[in-house]
Amino acid sequence: MSNLRFFDETNEDQNNQDLLPITGYESMPLVTLEKAVEPIEMFLYDLKDKVQRAKQNCRHLESSCLTQDEAAAIYIYTMEWAPVECCLYHLLNQTLRHRNRHELIPWFSYLKLLLTALFKLPSIKKTVWRGVKLNLQYPDSMKFAWWSFISCTESLTILESEAFLGKGH
Q1: What is the pTM of this model?
Q2: Dihedral sign, Cα of residue 104, residue 105, residue 106, residue 109
Q3: Fewer beta carbons under 10 A from the terminal one: N or C of the chain?
Q4: Is 114 exposed, middle or buried (0-12, 13-18, 19+ CB in 10 A)?
């Protein structure tokens, strides 16, 4: 599989800095993963089967701080399938970056479930690495918002592996 999740930063640009904040999802009711993805099923092939696999793989997490649906919402976000451009994470991130915020409305129930799960996870303070295959230079005083979810790693060794950035970047 591709590591598209780690290399989609070219879709983030400074022109997106004037996007409006994402609002509306927070008022959605918290529902099951099956219900949360109903409005986006048309965008993702075979989503019902992927939801079942995610829930099956998360059934043992119910005793943690997350419900099975919350854990599965995170799990399905990380799943990759072919073609990679049709994965949930890719389509969601693309929509999060879009200037037309109305395109996010079908994603609101899923965002509510996903963000509820993420906010339940314990906060930790660590150094993480995010590599990009671009020469990005921002003034120190500039505040910069990346509107999509961004993948990072705790391991510089993993980031420098040939599967990701390599040592030449």
Answers
A1: 0.83
A2: positive
A3: N
A4: buried
